[in-house]
Amino acid sequence: MATAGKVIKCKAAVAWEFNQPLVIEEVEVAPPQEKEIRIKIVATGVCQSDLYFLLKCMNKAMFPAVLGHEAAGIVESVGPGVTEYQPGDKVIPLFMPQCRECRFCKSPKTNVCVNGIVARFDEKEFEASRISCKGRKLLQLAGTSTFSEYTVVKEIAVAKIDAAAPLDKVCLIGCAICTGYGAAVNAAKVEAGSTCAVFGLGAVGLAAVMGCKAAGAQRIIAVDINPEKFEKAKVFGATDVVNPKDHSEPIQQVLTEMTDGGVDFSIECIGDVEVMRSALESCVQGWGVSVIVGWTTLQNISAPPVQLLTGRTWKGTLFGGFKGKDGVSGMVKAYLDKKLMVDEFITHNMTLDQINEAVELMKHGQCIRTVLSVCSQ
Predict the structure, then answer these.
(1) pLDDT (tens digit per residue) in 2-29
(2) For burial by CB atoms within 10 Å, which of 50, 118, 127, 294 has the most?
(3) Burial class (CB in 10 A: 0-12, 13-18, 19+), 241
């Protein structure tokens, strides 16, 4: 392409400060270096994790930054040493890389990669950024920064996808859908005929409901304090819906009574440590498995040891246990083969210029997923 090897000036939503609106700015995106790829972002979702870093985590060392990590686009150019991709390829950038060479990537037990992004928010991380504005380097959160018309990512953090894939749909596979669906099928390993409970019915939670159904769960209880999400949960496979606000007893007691002792599997998709404990305690003794999916670094989890001594398992997962490159490509294929719902998650379509409106929708629980149109194909 004509822009290969040159700095690209383009539009991005910049987070200059903690808990402040994003600002649409002209940024400069440098050419990709060794083993890097520059991507034209066509569509990006707005995820709760973006809001977490913008509004909750209170780590001011990470600003200024370009957020965004759930996206799809087209390879604009590649740096030296890149052989797996070429300009024009449709791709999904990954916040969970897959180098395929480290001991973790070679193990079927995990999707962690030694070369994954470490969120240090230090000077070295800023210097590694390929995006700058007004003479300042902007942190590339999770190494992706998809709230920009162009971004540069490592070769190990890109999944090539089918050329037939609609980018304004499959962008959601880059985070929410894999995270929730995989929590059920890969982490919890939900069994046919089992009873499950999913806490939190955002996009990740609904994907977990969908994963429980795909695994053959007989009963899927969807839990949320926003009853407006219940009908959507049923679309994805929920058999029961429960609003904790409708009960005077703790939600774990409610679920235990509903299920003759507790659910076989519970999945927490909120990022609240109290809900994490409730999810654990809603599991049946002996074999119940509870999976933590929601992200938080603000508080520590705790529970009485007896909750585990009686046979429950408490575990966590990132990106639903999917290895980045392989998992994303496979999930896109499943969508194209009509084996996976994706379109049903999208409640709003907006442009990058409307990103603060999208943030407000998510803050107030008024959407499942908003997809932003960033660049035309």
Answers:
(1) 888 899 999 999 999 988 999 999 999 9
(2) 50
(3) middle
Amino acid at 236: F
The answer to whether the beta carbons of residues 182 and 317 sit under 8 Å apart is: yes
Dihedrals phi, psi of 78, to nearest 5 degrees? -125, 150
Asked whether the beta carbons of 207 and 341 are under 8 A apart, the reply is no
Cα–Cα distance, 376 to 48 (Å, whole number): 25
The answer to whether the beta carbons of residues 377 and 42 sit under 8 Å apart is yes
As a three-state string, the secondary structure of 26-53 is EEEECCCCCCEEEEEEEEEECCHHHHHH
Residues 63-101 have pLDDT tens digits of 999 999 999 999 999 999 999 999 999 999 999 999 999
Note the pTM of the prediction, 2 decimals: 0.94
Mean pLDDT of the residues in the chain: 94
The string of DSSP codes covering 288-325 is: -EEEE----SSS-----THHHHTT-EEEE-SGGG--HH
CA distance 108 to 305: 29
Contact 359, 370 (CB under 8 A): no
